[in-house]
Specification:
One of its GO terms (molecular function) is oxidoreductase activity. It holds the Pfam family Nitroreductase. It is found in: Cytoplasm. By secondary structure, the chain is α+β, with helices and mostly antiparallel strands. It contains seven helices and five strands. The chain has one domain: NADH Oxidase, CATH 3.40.109. The two termini are 26 Å apart.
């Protein structure tokens, strides 16, 4: 492996919304990709506080049915058309990866290391984001499209009830994945020199 392989994967990872159920890999291999990321993604103090659930097929569609039901309760009926289309778009994909943070782990770290107590919730969010990126980028390298959603906390109760999620797990994001029915749109980049500086080289 070379660093160029990692760079290529980073460039390949995009928000792909036109997804279908035709995965280029078996579901078991997709699940193994996610599991590998969960095992090897770093976390502050090696806390390993991120929790992940993968949903395929009917279970995935059930998730977005819950989201649609929750949104119908808050979006006026006359304005729900675009929201319904978005939910249908997510359902058309092959699966979803749910990312959680275990508050019990964070609480334990705060008690063990009180000097850093204020930092642990922030560091937990960093770890969760790194897991999201690791899964998303590896799926992209495998030819699987994905887009990251945040319908928490709107769907939290339904998710916890349906998939027996422990009370200490807080849902942070939902990564929708599937076969790529159409590529991502073009992306604009801000000038690198406004975001990146080097000294001493």
């Amino acid at each position: 492996m070379t660093y160029q392989h990692l760079q290529q994967a980073a460039e390949t990872r995009r928000s792909v919304y036109a997804l279908d159920k035709n995965l280029p890999l078996p579901a078991a291999e997709v699940a193994a990709i996610v599991g590998h990321a969960v095992k090897h993604t770093p976390s502050a103090f090696n806390s390993q506080s991120t929790r992940v659930v993968v949903l395929f097929g009917a279970e995935h569609e059930k998730l977005w049915g819950f989201a649609e039901d929750a949104l119908r309760a808050v979006v006026p009926a006359g304005q729900f058309g675009p929201t319904a289309q978005k939910m249908a778009m997510f359902k058309a994909a092959a699966g979803s990866v749910l990312f959680f943070e275990d508050r019990d782990v964070v609480k334990g770290l705060k008690e063990r290391f009180p000097s850093y107590a204020d930092n642990f919730p922030v560091w937990a969010e960093h770890a969760d984001a790194m897991h999201q990126y690791a899964v998303w980028t590896t799926l992209a390298a495998a030819g699987i499209g994905a887009n990251l959603q945040h319908y928490n906390p709107l769907i939290d109760q339904a998710v916890a009830r349906e998939w027996n999620i422990p009370a200490s797990w807080t849902l942070r994001a939902e990564l929708v994945f599937g076969g790529i029915a159409a590529p991502a749109d073009g992306k604009e980049y801000a000038p690198l020199d406004t975001r990146f500086k080097v000294y001493g080289a």
